[in-house]
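FORM 12-B: Structure-to-Sequence Request
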C-alpha cells in the first residue's frame, strides 16, 4: 500500500532543466567596446612617431654619392614605415644615371636599408670636346669626371646611333682577342660602314666589320711578322673585305695579302 506522504510517480512534477546562460547585451557591448579600444590603441601606436622613417643605411654605391641618394628620398622622410610603399622610392632612385638596380628593405622601427648596384662603364665616348662614360648597353651614363676614375678606357667616337655596335665590338674583342684588346685605344664608326680601330700594336687605323672582327684581327696578328719583314708601310689596314687584308698606302695604292 502506497505511503500517504509520497506522491505517486505519475503525479510528480518534472524537474527543471538548468538553462545555459548566454552573455547579455551589456556584456557583448562591453567586449565590443574593449576590442575597438584595443584596435584603436594599436593603430595609434603603429602610426605614431616610433615608426616614422628617419634612418637610412646606404651601401653598394661608389659613383652615386650618398648625399644624392638621400636628397632623392627626402620626400619620404618622416613617413610611417609600416604603411610605406617601397616601389615609388625604388623608381625614384632608378632615375639616377649611375644606379642600375636598387634593393630596399625596411628596418623596424624607423630605418630603411638601401642596397645599390651601379652601372659599369666600359668605354668613353668623345663628342667634340666632351667625354661621356658609356655603359654595357651602349647608352651614355654621365659626363666624364677624371676625379672619379683613373682607369684607362677605350675611346669611342662617331655617331651616337653606332654606340651599341661599338660596345658590342669591344666586348667581342675582349672575349676572343684579349691580347689585342689590351692594346686597343680607340674605336670610331666609319661613314662607309664598319669601324676604324687604333691600337698600340700596328699604330695605324685598322678597319673592321663587327661580324668578323675577332677572326680578321687574328689573321692580321698572324701576318704581322710577314708584313714587317717585307717593310711594307701602310696608312691604314682594311679588314672589311672577304679573305683578304688590304694595306692602304700613303697614295691610296693598296697591297693585298
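FORM 12-B RESPONSE
SEQUENCE OUT:
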Amino acid at each position: 500500500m502506497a505511503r500517504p506522504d509520497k506522491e505517486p510517480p505519475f503525479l510528480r512534477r518534472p524537474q527543471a532543466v538548468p538553462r545555459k546562460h548566454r552573455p547579455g547585451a551589456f556584456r557583448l557591448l562591453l567586449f565590443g567596446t574593449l576590442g575597438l579600444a584595443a584596435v584603436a590603441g594599436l593603430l595609434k601606436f603603429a602610426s605614431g612617431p616610433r615608426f616614422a622613417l628617419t634612418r637610412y643605411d646606404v651601401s653598394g654605391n661608389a659613383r652615386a654619392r650618398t648625399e644624392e641618394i638621400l636628397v632623392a628620398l627626402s620626400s619620404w622622410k618622416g613617413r610611417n614605415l609600416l604603411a610605406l610603399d617601397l616601389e615609388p622610392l625604388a623608381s625614384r632612385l632608378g632615375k639616377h644615371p649611375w644606379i642600375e638596380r636598387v634593393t630596399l628593405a625596411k628596418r623596424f622601427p624607423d630605418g630603411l636599408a638601401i642596397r645599390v648596384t651601379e652601372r659599369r662603364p666600359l668605354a668613353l665616348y668623345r663628342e667634340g670636346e666632351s667625354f661621356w662614360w658609356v655603359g654595357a648597353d651602349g647608352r651614355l651614363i654621365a659626363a666624364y669626371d677624371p676625379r672619379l676614375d683613373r682607369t684607362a678606357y677605350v675611346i669611342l667616337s662617331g655617331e651616337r646611333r653606332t654606340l651599341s655596335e661599338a660596345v658590342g665590338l669591344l666586348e667581342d674583342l675582349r672575349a676572343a682577342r684579349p691580347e689585342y684588346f689590351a692594346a686597343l685605344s680607340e674605336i670610331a664608326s666609319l661613314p662607309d660602314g664598319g669601324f676604324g680601330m687604333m691600337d698600340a700594336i700596328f699604330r695605324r687605323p685598322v678597319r673592321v666589320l663587327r661580324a668578323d672582327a675577332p677572326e680578321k684581327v687574328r689573321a692580321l696578328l698572324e701576318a704581322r711578322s710577314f708584313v714587317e719583314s717585307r717593310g711594307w708601310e701602310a696608312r691604314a689596314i682594311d679588314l672589311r673585305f672577304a679573305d683578304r687584308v688590304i694595306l692602304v698606302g700613303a697614295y691610296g695604292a693598296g697591297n693585298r695579302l
